[in-house]
Design goal:
single chain; 694 residues; alpha+beta
Length: 694
């Protein structure tokens, strides 16, 4: 993954609209007349009465009538990787009296045949239409299916003609009308059963509910982070309900890839492979870990059972902000998966969650939710969580773990019933003990000392960096998990480990003093110095960085001349029971910000009723203009009735504060396929905060 430079958003072109001039064209000529997007009909079940009429370069009209729900029109179109496409189909004058029955459904299939998105029709009469926008993750030929009257309306009704428009769109609406189906959360977990230190995808086995293989064991769960190198790959190697898994990337050479993309290693290779530094070239590089973290944990703890959690399908993004957007959702998924997998009777001896990069937020969110269900997390390890540098904050990729951790009972002395939290800083992270913590459930804000119980460890990856590193070099960010792996087990450069997972309450190690120091530092000047030696550093009596959470005032966006209701600190969304998306828009004032500030919004949320895979989605116009960007997603099924904690990473507002320092935030309840959207969610305790000095 690459964090060391900023990526400009992919540009997209609008198709030029020609003046209206209706003409009937043969289907064979349509590719020549569509310079932006080639479009042609695939099937031949239409009659002369349903001939195609072309309007402009990107607007296509189907005349005649779609006879019934059994009639399906199928089209193909080509798109470049990264293009954003907008599709809509609507009733026209030629629909005639059938407009009252007009109700098409759109479905888009990726080049590999998997369904990307689907949308039903909304509105009434000639205003009825189906529409959505989506990102073409890979280049190739896509298929658009327009089906007739929706099934609940009955068979045999004529839906009339329709106008179909397919065009390139600006990167504005990343939110579709239908939430995708959720994969079984247990399929995202795998259990390590190695035959040797040499990795194989067959080393990882599926788990089952109430899995007795975990009884009486020390269960370690590792979570990967942002997988930018795999952008576009999951769409070609999985589906929504059976996504590409982390352990399947061990066989990366066999995976289908977008054009011009070459994979060189699995996702988060430190989990499976030994790691070396970048000093002195490949033949003289310093060894950091002789084997992957999974193998090292098994060697270090005879009672270890190692699991890994996969969210490659969400984290394989070109930019880091969309990866961060899905961290809370995957934290809820991980908690749900562990609740199912861990034996309820003869349970595990202990539970240790390990997260790297954005995966550290997935693990932290899971720990807070497991605590609500009385599942004790003994140990939480944070490996270089993205918390600082403008490359993180300006790109809205900050984890803000300081907000979530006070929901746990943290103790460096490892008293019974508490959670030991160690935080390893190698590039993008910061010492959590320097931040003033707050109770995330309290209103108004209440200070707590939880973050001063975190064991912060500052590593120096610069010793193993090349003399002239590339601006795209991510070794420093990867060094934390590699160091943790090498520091967990005994080997030639670390004969008697007293570090890394040897600090864990799951591992009996008399050489470790209790409590563990709140601030430890790796001091070395050259690769010849001891790599795994730490010294205790100083800790100030008062945390110098205070986020100062304060209530965020929202003003609801209403129609002109309509009365604007006063904001009472809570947003409640309730589905209408008709399967339609529900959205409420508000504006808020951006506070004065410095470029080094990590700004965000925090809130609590809870579903009081939910159906299927309905989703809460939140968007903010984080850049210039009014383009809404998706910044948060949570599926009702995964969070269930638990109270969730959430943050929105909005550091880019330091550069783009908006006209009159005003931004718009939209809360949407999005139904899943087949849902009537009988879901209700309440967003409360909404605050803004600034972590200075990021």
């Amino acid at each position: 993954m690459i964090w060391s430079c900023m990526f400009p958003p992919a540009s997209s072109r609008r198709g030029r609209r020609s003046p209206f001039k209706a003409s009937v064209e043969r289907l064979a000529r349509r590719d020549m007349l569509a310079p932006v997007l080639a479009l042609r009909e695939l099937e031949s079940n239409d009659t002369a009465a349903t001939s195609q009429e072309l309007r402009g370069f990107d607007h296509y009209r189907v005349t005649g009538r779609v006879a019934s729900i059994a009639d399906v029109d199928s089209y193909s179109f080509t798109a470049d990787a990264g293009a954003r496409l907008a599709i809509d189909v609507r009733a026209t004058g030629r629909t005639g009296r059938a407009a009252r029955d007009f109700s098409p459904r759109l479905t888009v299939h990726a080049p590999d045949g998997s369904v990307i998105s689907t949308a039903p029709a909304r509105g009434a009469g000639h205003a009825r239409r189906a529409e959505f926008a989506f990102l073409a993750a890979t280049g190739g030929t896509y298929r658009l299916v327009v089906s007739g009257r929706q099934q609940e309306a009955g068979i045999g009704r004529q839906t009339g003609g329709y106008a179909l428009r397919l065009r390139t769109a600006p990167p504005s609406s990343d939110v579709g009308d239908i939430a995708p189906a959720e994969a079984d959360v247990l399929t995202r977990l795998a259990l390590y059963r190695p035959t040797s230190a040499t990795p194989s995808a067959s080393d990882w086995q599926p788990l089952v509910a109430n899995d007795t293989r975990l009884s009486g064991k020390n269960v370690y769960v590792a979570v990967h982070g942002w997988a930018t190198d795999y952008a576009g790959v999951p769409a070609l190697n999985g589906t929504t309900t059976d996504p590409l898994k982390w352990w399947q990337t061990i066989d990366y050479q066999s995976l289908l890839t977008p054009a011009s993309k070459t994979l060189t290693e699995p996702v988060a290779a430190y989990m499976f492979l030994g790691q070396v530094g970048e000093d002195g070239g490949s033949t003289q590089a310093t060894l950091v870990s002789p084997a992957g973290l999974a193998w090292q944990l098994k060697q270090s703890d005879p009672d270890a059972e190692v699991l890994i959690y996969s969210w490659v399908d969400d984290s394989a993004q070109l930019l880091p902000a969309p990866s961060e957007t899905f961290t809370a959702l995957n934290g809820a998924r991980l908690a749900s998966a562990l609740e199912q997998a861990l034996p309820s009777g003869d349970g595990p001896r202990g539970l240790h969650l390990i997260g790297h990069s954005h995966g550290s937020k997935v693990a932290t969110v899971a720990a807070t939710l497991l605590r609500q269900h009385d599942l004790h997390v003994n140990h939480l390890t944070i490996l270089d969580s993205p918390e600082r540098t403008t490359n993180v904050t300006d790109m809205n990729a900050t984890n803000h773990l300081w907000y979530f951790l006070p929901a746990l009972s943290i103790d460096r002395g490892q008293a019974a019933g508490t959670t030991f939290v160690d935080n390893y800083i190698s590039d993008l992270d910061r010492r959590l003990g320097l931040i003033q913590g707050y109770d995330p459930y309290a209103l108004p804000a209440v200070k707590v000392s939880a973050l001063q119980q975190v064991a912060d460890v500052t590593l120096d990856a610069g010793v193993l960096m090349p003399s002239s590193p590339s601006s795209f070099d991510s070794f420093s960010h990867r060094y934390a998990p590699a160091w943790y792996s090498g520091g967990s087990a005994a080997w030639s450069a670390n004969p008697s480990p007293t570090l890394a997972n040897q600090w864990s309450p799951l591992v009996a190690n008399p050489a470790v003093a209790r409590p563990v120091a709140g601030n430890s530092i790796q001091l070395w000047r050259s690769p010849r110095d001891p790599q795994f030696a730490l010294v205790t550093g100083q800790t100030p009596a008062i945390p110098p960085f205070d986020p100062s959470p304060a209530p965020l005032v929202l003003k609801q966006v209403v129609k002109p001349f309509a009365r604007r209701p006063s904001f009472d600190g809570t947003v409640t969304l309730s589905g209408d029971g008709k399967g339609r998306e529900v959205t409420e828009a508000y504006t808020f004032k951006t506070p004065p910000l410095d470029d080094t500030d990590a700004f965000g919004i925090s809130f609590n949320l809870q579903f009081s009723a939910f159906e299927a895979d309905d989703q809460l989605r939140i968007t903010v116009n984080t850049d210039i203009g009014d383009t809404q960007k998706q910044v948060y997603v949570m599926t009702a099924r995964q969070l269930g009735a638990r109270q969730g904690l959430a943050t929105l990473s909005l550091g880019s507002l330091a550069q783009y504060p908006g006209l009159f320092n005003t931004k718009q935030i939209e809360f949407s309840l999005v139904p899943s396929e087949g849902s009537q959207c009988r879901t209700t969610v309440t967003i409360s305790n909404i605050k803004q905060f600034i972590v200075p000095g990021a």
